[in-house]
Amino acid sequence: MEILGFMADALSPINLLLAVLGVAAGIVIGALPGLSATMAVAVLVPVTFGMPTEMALIMLGAIYTGAIYGGSYAAILINTPGTPSAIATTFDGYPMARRGDGDLAVTLSTLSSVIGGLVGAVALLTLAPLLAQIALKFGPVEYFWLAIFGLTMISALSEGSILKGFIGAGFGLLLSTVGVSVIGADIRYTFGSQFLLGGVEIISALIGLYCVPVLIDLVATPSAHLKPPEQKRGMRLAEGVGLMCKGKFNALRSSVIGVVVAIMPGAGGSIASLVSYSEARRASPHSERFGHGEPDGVIATETTNNAVVGGGFIPTFVLGIPGTPPDAVILGALLVQGFRTGPEMFTTNAQVTYTFIGGLFIATLVMLPLGLLIGRYAFKSIVSIPKALLVPSIAFMTIIGTYAIRNNPFDVVVMVVLGVLGWVLSRYGIKPSPIVLGLILGPIAEQGFVQGYLMGNASGSVMAIFFGRPLSLAIIALILISVAYPLWRAGRGRSSKEAAHEH
């Protein structure tokens, strides 16, 4: 009962106001290309320094929640992930918007985000100490195998040829090696440029690969950007709730994936959403619709994204290890406030912790009316804006967003070059998603492999390090299943077609 009393403290007028303001600010920042959830939290951290700790945490948690959800607006309406977590939302959200269902896609995104956020908050409330123990068992080798498992999802992300998907991922892995190596500090592929020492910045690459090709296509085609709805349909809330009820198992599975991936420090929302999208596609009886405007694709990615918010706080609070990059910023704010993370977060500092968790529930629920309201006008605005105004506006936001990440003009050059290259590659069937996947997973795989190899050399058996741990063997089994299942399904499809042809 004491815990419920602490959580009820989040219902005070000032905490409710902070939750509403935080979610609204997060949605707006998250919707702008380049301004990630991490940046949204980091920019507004100084505002919280004079606040009591629980108020500061509630506001930062609300900003984080709103920004993760806000990334879906740009993903659905202009095919540009507002945040890295929204990469997979573009796969089906944008095709839905192209056929005139952008309002439904935004409503689905809102409902899915609320459900995922609630599941993440429940996990933080009930499973924090237990699930945090899993994170402790993950060493470098497990992270290497986890990255390899992520790369096997290319078969699900490739539109058409799986071979072209692997070519794209290989290019992404190559990009991830640019700059100073993760282990050993070797300088690679910089061609004498000091700007490339820091490597290819992921958000810059993301904006370039997803946004620039859209801008080129907008300029090249005379037709309207999005198909306007034939009649006024409001928020299509009843239709969205119906689709959510049909996809309830998909939403639940995706939420669990989001929580589980989030407690593995460093994995982040972008990997979680790609994993859940891949699993949703594999489990669906209509997998061929994915990538062409399938509502289940939006449900899978958006429930995962917001489940990551609550799940990421588990290792942050219990172990002091940030589950995601925004968690690292919030952890820094906690340390500034004079709080230490660890078991005392749930004992000595229980009031602050459980008031924050209560605030997280409130922020997630507030997201429903705010998201539906803002989303409705966002879709109407994007549809009605003429191309002559839309293209320069998006181009300006991408340039500003890219520059703001590191205040480095060279990042803008990298963004434009990769964008043009991405547009050319897409003409030949190599899509941006496998490239981004390789870029994200490359450093994780490299660091895990090199550290595992050094540990193996030191212990006298490299093979035992990589293939002798139960957790590693479990992930390897998942990799084998992930590779074999699409091949088995394709073979089964060919056999049924041949049988039907014979009859």
What does this molecule look like?
The protein starts with a helix and ends with a helix. It has a domain of 283 residues. The protein has 503 residues and is an all-alpha fold. It is built from 21 helices and 2 strands. It is 74% helix and 1% strand. The model has no long low-confidence stretch (mean pLDDT 79). Helix 6 runs antiparallel to helix 16 and helix 7 packs parallel to helix 21. Strands 1-2 form a two-stranded antiparallel ribbon.
Could you write a compact summary of the structure shown?
This protein has 503 residues and is mostly helical. 74% of the residues lie in helices and 1% in strands.
Mean pLDDT: 79
Task: Please give the count of helices.
Answer: 21
What composes the largest sheet? 2 strands, antiparallel
- Roughly what percent helix? over 70%
Distance between termini?
68 Å
Listing every helix as H and every strand as E from the N terminus to the C terminus, the arrangement reads: HHHHHHHHHEEHHHHHHHHHHHH
User: How many strands appear in the DSSP assignment?
Assistant: 2
Low-confidence stretches: none
Strand order of the largest sheet: 1-2
**Rg (CA only):** 22 Å
Structure class: mainly alpha
- Beta-strand percentage range: under 5%
Overall 3D form: globular
